[in-house]
Every structure is written in C-alpha cells, then in structure tokens.
Design a protein that fits this description.
This protein is 41% helix and 13% strand. By secondary structure, it is an alpha/beta fold. The strands form two sheets. A five-stranded parallel β-sheet has the order 7-6-5-8-9. Strands 2-1-3-4 form a four-stranded parallel β-sheet, with helices on both faces.
Length: 302
C-alpha cells in the first residue's frame, strides 16, 4: 500500500497503479462526494487543474471540470493547437511548465507513452482521461455503479462483449483489484491487451449468469478507416434482448457511451429496464472528484 507521501506525488495512468485498498477507498470517497458534493469544498481553493484533450470528450471533460470546481479549483481546458506542443515543444518541457501553475494535469491522448512521459517529467499528479490503452476513470465509475446496485463487488460476474479495447483493459484491471470476475467475448484478433480475464469468442457463453453485461462502440476514435471491417467482424457480438436474457435475472447493462444503437447494442437494451448507463455516467463525477482530491491532498487513501 502506498504511503501518504508517495500517493501525494503519484499519477494515475492505469487502474493497476492502485492497489485493492486504494481502489476501495476511492469508491468510499466517491460515495461521500455523491452524498455530500461540497465535502472538502475548499481543498483546492485558489488552484488550477489543467485539462488537456487531444480527443473529443463529453462525459470526461464535463464531469472533471465539475469535480475540480466542487473542490474549489479552476478547471482550465487546453487544446493542442493552443499550446506550443502543436509547434514541437517536447512533452516533458510542457509538463515541467504546467507543474509550476497547476495542482494536477488531466490528459486525454492517443498513446499511453505520451502520458508516461508527461507523468515522468511533471511534479504534480497526471491523470489519464483516456488513452488508446486504458480508461481508468471509466472503470472507477463502473465499479461504483456495480457496488451501488449489488451492494458488493467480490464474486460478481461481468461480461464484456465486443472489442477488447482500452475500456476492457481497465475493467480487467479493476476486476483484479475488487474480486469481480471479468469475462471478455470478442472475435479473434480483438482480444484485450491486459491479462486476467476469461476470454472467449462466444458471447452467449460469456453472458451466461452474468450480473452485468457491458459493451462499447465498435469503431473508436481514430479507427474510422477500419469501420467497414470492424462492423463486419463484430456483428455477431451485438448486445440485444436475446443475449441479455442469458444473463442473471437481475443483471444490469453497462456502456461507457457514446452508444450507437443498432450497432453494438439495441435500443431495447440500452433504453430498457436493465440499463444502468445513466447511473454509470453520473458516477463519473463523484469518482473523479474522489480521485482528484486523493491525488492532490494525499490524505484519503490510507
């Protein structure tokens, strides 16, 4: 377990940067902030949080800005074309400069290596707001949603159906920390890059008896040139009513959004009684508030 001092200086680039105790404490903190949004309202008063986005964002940008504001910080949105990064300034130089002004740096980018370079050079926490490899903020909200619905995490079965992408990687790492059994159903060649999940090419097998059925878009940002091939490869992995019937009777449906109805999920599922996607999306705010507070105050995860 990390000490107070090491946690204060740490970044979060992937779920496995945490241990099981820290992950549980973040969920506890998130529950506190969900019940009392103004708890620790002055923790970052007078400070600024940089939000650097190379990719489009609805939920992450909005929820993190709200989380920073609730803690008293000014969220400052930045784009590549607004910074000298767009004119060739090294990432490390940018990180060193921003560290002098910011309480934390939130970054959504393509390559995980860019996050790692930023975190190595920065003197303040760097938070992965999504890369091609990991989406830790989403996994925190997912596990909070499961805990709220089932009042436990240990022993739950989560079936992820579709492309074994960054979301799947973070779910697998979160499952390893919380005792959630993650099964991934995907076509050959779409397996997740992270070990620790049961992987099958049969969605019906994966979903059988699951407490939660999860999917994501089949064509992620930056994959538009592969759209036709990906849609053909993944067609048999659509989450529809007949597939969801194979899950447990009280199963919930999860999706990190945005969703493409008629592709990875049908309208009857995402808009139906088993859907927990709006609760899941709302949980991005308290989990990010908890993470930002923990990484900048250093006293929350012991």
């Amino acid at each position: 377990m990390a000490t107070l001092e090491t946690m204060k200086a740490r970044s979060l680039l992937k779920v496995s940067d945490l241990d099981s105790h820290e992950f549980e404490r973040l969920l506890d903190l998130a529950e506190l902030f969900k019940e009392k949004p103004d708890a620790h309202a002055g923790a970052l008063r007078g400070r600024t949080v940089a939000m650097f986005f190379e990719k489009p964002s609805t939920r992450t940008r909005s929820s993190f800005a709200a989380a920073a504001y609730r803690l008293g910080a000014l969220p400052l949105s930045l784009r590549p074309d607004e910074l000298q990064l767009g004119r060739g300034e090294p990432i490390a130089d940018t990180a060193r400069v921003l560290s002098a002004y910011m309480a934390a740096i939130v970054i959504r980018t393509f390559a995980q290596a860019e996050l790692e370079e930023m975190a190595t050079a920065a003197d303040v926490p760097v938070i992965n707001a999504l890369s091609d490899s990991h989406h830790p903020l989403q996994a925190l909200a997912d596990m909070l949603t499961l805990r709220e619905r089932f009042h436990r995490l240990e022993g739950l079965k989560l079936a992820y159906v579709g492309d074994g992408n960054n979301v799947a990687n973070s779910l697998i790492e979160a499952g390893a920390l919380t005792g959630v059994e993650v099964t991934v159903a995907c076509p050959p060649g779409y397996e997740p890059a992270v070990a620790g999940a049961v992987v099958t090419h049969d969605p019906a097998e994966a979903v059988h008896g699951a407490s939660a059925v999860y999917t994501d878009v089949w064509v992620s940002m930056g994959e538009d040139a592969e759209r036709d091939r990906r849609l053909a490869d993944l067609r048999a992995f659509q989450v529809n009513g007949s597939l969801l019937e194979r899950a447990a009777p009280d199963a919930i449906f999860l999706h990190c959004l945005p969703a493409h109805r008629g592709e990875e999920v049908t309208a009857e599922v995402i808009d139906g009684p088993h859907s927990a996607v709006w609760q899941q999306a709302a949980n991005r705010l308290p989990t990010e508030q908890a993470l930002l507070y923990a990484l900048t105050s250093g006293d929350a995860l012991q």
